[in-house]
Amino acid sequence: MKETTYETFSRGKMYFDLGDYIEAARILRPIAEDEPGSRSILELLGRSYFHSAQLAKAEETFRRIIELDPCDSWAHIALARSLERQSRDDEAAPYRRMHAAMSGGSLD
Predict the structure, then answer these.
(1) What gap in Å lies between CA 62 and CA 42, rounded to an integer?
(2) What confidence tens digit (pLDDT) does each residue in 24-61 have?
(3) CA 6 → CA 36, 38, 40, 58, 59, distances in Å?
(4) What distance in Å separates the CA atoms of residue 14 and residue 68, rounded to the nearest whole number?
Protein backbone atom coordinates (compact mmCIF):
# COMPACT_ATOMS: atom_id res chain seq x y z
CA MET A 1 0.00 0.00 0.00
CA LYS A 2 1.44 3.35 -1.08
CA GLU A 3 1.93 6.04 1.55
CA THR A 4 -0.16 9.18 1.30
CA THR A 5 1.59 12.52 0.90
CA TYR A 6 0.70 13.31 4.51
CA GLU A 7 2.22 10.04 5.75
CA THR A 8 5.41 10.65 3.77
CA PHE A 9 5.60 14.24 5.03
CA SER A 10 5.11 13.00 8.61
CA ARG A 11 7.89 10.45 8.16
CA GLY A 12 10.18 13.16 6.77
CA LYS A 13 9.33 15.41 9.71
CA MET A 14 10.11 12.59 12.13
CA TYR A 15 13.59 12.23 10.65
CA PHE A 16 14.03 16.01 10.71
CA ASP A 17 13.01 16.12 14.38
CA LEU A 18 15.50 13.32 15.11
CA GLY A 19 18.26 15.39 13.49
CA ASP A 20 18.70 13.12 10.46
CA TYR A 21 18.41 15.94 7.93
CA ILE A 22 19.85 13.99 5.01
CA GLU A 23 17.24 11.25 5.38
CA ALA A 24 14.50 13.84 5.85
CA ALA A 25 15.51 15.52 2.58
CA ARG A 26 15.66 12.17 0.78
CA ILE A 27 12.11 11.39 1.89
CA LEU A 28 10.70 14.86 1.20
CA ARG A 29 12.27 15.51 -2.22
CA PRO A 30 9.86 13.28 -4.21
CA ILE A 31 6.74 14.70 -2.60
CA ALA A 32 8.03 18.24 -3.15
CA GLU A 33 8.30 17.37 -6.85
CA ASP A 34 4.76 15.94 -6.81
CA GLU A 35 3.38 18.92 -4.85
CA PRO A 36 5.41 21.90 -6.15
CA GLY A 37 3.03 24.43 -4.63
CA SER A 38 3.09 23.03 -1.10
CA ARG A 39 4.88 25.56 1.04
CA SER A 40 4.89 23.29 4.11
CA ILE A 41 6.70 20.55 2.19
CA LEU A 42 9.10 23.02 0.59
CA GLU A 43 9.86 24.68 3.93
CA LEU A 44 10.72 21.41 5.65
CA LEU A 45 12.74 20.28 2.62
CA GLY A 46 14.65 23.56 2.55
CA ARG A 47 15.35 23.37 6.26
CA SER A 48 16.55 19.78 5.83
CA TYR A 49 18.92 20.85 3.08
CA PHE A 50 20.14 23.83 5.12
CA HIS A 51 20.82 21.79 8.26
CA SER A 52 22.63 19.10 6.27
CA ALA A 53 24.80 21.76 4.56
CA GLN A 54 23.31 21.08 1.13
CA LEU A 55 23.30 24.83 0.67
CA ALA A 56 22.75 25.08 -3.09
CA LYS A 57 19.67 22.88 -2.76
CA ALA A 58 18.48 24.91 0.23
CA GLU A 59 18.94 28.10 -1.78
CA GLU A 60 16.96 26.69 -4.70
CA THR A 61 14.15 25.56 -2.39
CA PHE A 62 13.92 28.88 -0.54
CA ARG A 63 13.84 30.70 -3.89
CA ARG A 64 10.88 28.51 -4.90
CA ILE A 65 9.05 29.51 -1.72
CA ILE A 66 9.67 33.18 -2.45
CA GLU A 67 8.34 32.67 -5.99
CA LEU A 68 5.17 31.18 -4.50
CA ASP A 69 4.83 33.94 -1.90
CA PRO A 70 7.07 37.00 -2.26
CA CYS A 71 5.77 38.30 1.09
CA ASP A 72 7.03 35.31 3.11
CA SER A 73 9.57 37.05 5.35
CA TRP A 74 10.77 33.73 6.78
CA ALA A 75 11.77 32.52 3.29
CA HIS A 76 13.72 35.73 2.71
CA ILE A 77 15.81 35.30 5.86
CA ALA A 78 16.27 31.58 5.17
CA LEU A 79 17.55 32.38 1.69
CA ALA A 80 19.81 35.10 3.08
CA ARG A 81 21.32 32.68 5.60
CA SER A 82 21.82 30.02 2.91
CA LEU A 83 23.67 32.53 0.75
CA GLU A 84 25.73 33.77 3.70
CA ARG A 85 26.82 30.23 4.55
CA GLN A 86 28.10 30.03 0.97
CA SER A 87 30.10 33.27 1.54
CA ARG A 88 27.79 35.19 -0.79
CA ASP A 89 27.03 38.07 1.58
CA ASP A 90 26.45 40.63 -1.17
CA GLU A 91 23.75 38.43 -2.72
CA ALA A 92 22.25 37.79 0.72
CA ALA A 93 21.96 41.46 1.69
CA PRO A 94 18.78 42.31 -0.28
CA TYR A 95 16.96 39.28 1.16
CA ARG A 96 18.07 40.18 4.69
CA ARG A 97 16.86 43.77 4.14
CA MET A 98 13.54 42.52 2.73
CA HIS A 99 13.07 40.33 5.80
CA ALA A 100 13.87 43.31 8.04
CA ALA A 101 11.31 45.49 6.26
CA MET A 102 8.64 42.78 6.54
CA SER A 103 9.33 41.95 10.17
CA GLY A 104 9.54 45.41 11.63
CA GLY A 105 13.25 46.10 11.40
CA SER A 106 14.94 42.96 12.69
CA LEU A 107 17.82 41.78 10.50
CA ASP A 108 17.69 38.28 12.07
Answers:
(1) 8
(2) 999 999 999 999 999 999 999 999 999 999 999 999 99
(3) 14, 11, 11, 22, 24
(4) 25
